[in-house]
Amino acid sequence: MFSNLKEHPADKILALMQLYKDDPRPTKIDLGVGVYKNAEGVTPVMRAVKAAERKLVDEQTTKAYVGLAGDPAFADVMIDLVLGGAVPRDSIAAAATPGGTGAVRQAFELIRMANPSARVFVSNPTWPNHVTILNYLGMELVEYRYFDAETRGVDFDGMMADLADVRAGDVVLLHGCCHNPTGANLNLTEWKAVVDLLLKTGGIPMIDIAYQGFGDGLDEDALGVRLVASSVPECLIAASCSKNFGIYRERTGLLMAVAQDKGLRGLTQGSLNFLNRQNFSFPPDHGARVVTEILTDAKLRADWAAELEEVRLSMLDLRKQLAAELQRLSGSDRFGFIAQHRGMFSRLGASPEMVARLRAEHAIYMVGDSRLNIAGLNKTTVPILAKAIIDTGI
Ligand code: PMP
């Protein structure tokens, strides 16, 4: 039986991590995998997470199963964090999932179950897992233009032109904030135009929000999601706690299904429960409980928000430093987009050959599409990267 299996292409980012590990050069710089790192290159456990975990160790009395959709208290705090009251609670069905990836996967499965002929429109480029999961599920995918290779901003005209092809019942996948891999994001005016287009076409939005708090702030990063969720008849939201709580390996996420027709909530909730049951039964609980502890305890919540804000500002500062150094070296503003982008990533717009040269000649590792993880930098490595970018002719 096993001999019938096919080889799967290696995950490019994980392969890059291995290459970096194997590189003996002491000056090597890792701007690859999408994990936040502080100036010392460490992905720390956040203070509030440690405190909540200590409390759980001391006070948790059982590890018995939770419900199929996870602990309702987790759904409540996450709905509040993401939607901030923009939508009545009783119009939202929600299920905890293994990470944001689990939420994305369950959302796609729900779409397929409800409407097998739905096409899913994804930005070009998007997080590669969106594409591979849709392909794996045999769902039809349509790309829409997103990134302007010249300005390194959003090609909004191209995006709207491509989304004009959306038919009623098709799904439009949007990144809530901090677009991965480009770092280029919609402004509020553009979000409004997308809402108008969705209302006109009957397209159903699905929003993937994996970096809330990494861009312009916790509430600011959720403005687009809140606008969409409060404006359209139905939408799906996949939220991840991996980055903003730094609990990557705990696999903590929530899928929300919002319907203005409150009569649909029971049916939708039942389907979310069913999908969890078929795929893994009960979702992981530890990370969800940690998040719930933090968000329901005023002191822990304030400490978490303060540490997250430090993380956000440190990345913003690195963006500004890199853009300024590149301006100094190039004598032009053409790298200004790095300070405009938000989140952990920026797409430099370099060719795969240039990315390979950065690796070979400067021991600088970034993903082949020239996505760099800003959090992989520090004060010392910013000038090294800037010089390498100019030397490589980017
Ligand atoms: N969506 C996007 C756009 C992401 O970048 C990520 C993380 N790489 C996720 C979802 C899911 O992350 P996780 O499953 O680790 O929570």
Question: What does it look like?
Answer:
By secondary structure, the chain is an alpha/beta fold. It has 2 domains: 11-45 and 301-391, Aspartate Aminotransferase, domain 1, CATH 3.90.1150; 65-296, 3-Layer(aba) Sandwich (Aspartate Aminotransferase, domain 2), CATH 3.40.640. Helix content is 45%, strand content 13%. The strands form 3 sheets. The protein has a 7-stranded mixed sheet, sandwiched between helices. A two-stranded parallel ribbon has the order 1-10. Helix 2 (47-59) packs across helix 10, helix 2 (47-59) packs antiparallel against helix 11 (298-330) and helix 11 runs parallel beside helix 14. It is globular. It binds 4'-deoxy-4'-aminopyridoxal-5'-phosphate (PMP). 4'-deoxy-4'-aminopyridoxal-5'-phosphate binds at residues 34, 99-101, 104, 127, 175, 180, 208, 210, 240, 242, 248, 253. 4'-deoxy-4'-aminopyridoxal-5'-phosphate binds next to helix 4.
Radius of gyration: 21 Å
Relative strand content: 5-15%
CATH class category of the largest domain:
Alpha Beta
Q: Structural class per helix/strand content?
A: alpha/beta
Show unreliable segments: none
In CATH, what is the homologous superfamily of the largest domain?
Answer: Type I PLP-dependent aspartate aminotransferase-like (Major domain)
* N-to-C series of helices and strands: HEHHEHEHEHEHEHEEHHHHEHEEH
* Mean pLDDT value: 97
